Amino acid sequence: MNRKELDPESSPQAAFGARLRSSREGRGWTQEELAERMGYSSTHISSVETGRKLPTLRLSRSADRVFGTEGTADTFERQWREIRHGAMLEGFPEYVGHEGRAAEIRLYEVGVIPGLLQTPEYATVLAESAVKRGAITSDQASERVSLVVERQATLVRMPPPLVLVVLDESCLRRPVGGSAVMDGQLARLIEFAELPNTVLQIAPFDMGEHRPFDLPVTLVTLPDRQLMSYAESAQRGHLDRESVSVLPLLTAYHQLQAEALSQAASVAMISQLRKGSP
Predict the structure, then answer these.
(1) Cβ(197)–Cβ(189) below 8 Å
(2) DSSP 163-179
(3) Engineered SS bond to 60: which of 77, 101, 180, 219, CB 3.0-4.6 Å?
(4) For residue 66, which of 94, 99, 93, 26 has the smallest C-alpha distance?
């Protein structure tokens, strides 16, 4: 039987295939045996292992189930997301996987509406701007917009997560894409605030020194109550699971919520901006 050797370093797709093969061989299974356990044909498994066929989300989750890697930090699903979202920062696909099953999500954003709350039009303007700067390709821009839509399914899944969002006032006042795009985006924020599992607050400029954060903050609580934070630099995203560093962020987030406008006052501010009032 001919065996195609793979270089896992050659591409994320090859790394996925090599890992699938080594995991299978580590169990002493043939491709036929793995295929039966995963619900695929042996030809399909062979094509993924050798990099001839791209893995899918369904296949990745099936592999996690069969090999017992569900809920770990290094799942097949995480690798699949890295393949699919190659234009994203390193570390972001792993975060998205946790976000999709989170029990609670806490966000603080500065300057731009976060992806979970963006309209497709707003997201498209940001992605097209990155294309014009030469930062990403047109295909990668389309992928970014598609991911925004996919991530927002988290808000309405059952059971839905509790989503707490505090936006710096700059998120509202930074014009993106013209008046029509901004009006649609502001309307979307009001719709978000009306969901039964969400809270939206604005941190106004006049909070001054009472603002505990100068940079965006994301805190995720998983169903098992594990708490993690996510932050981005210019080069990569970073997940932190160490309680010694994450718990102080949660305390500071509570302080931020206490100083920010109430949801009612925040929605009133957004409504005034939609009317063109300062």
Answers:
(1) no
(2) EEEEEEHHHHHS--S-H
(3) 77
(4) 26
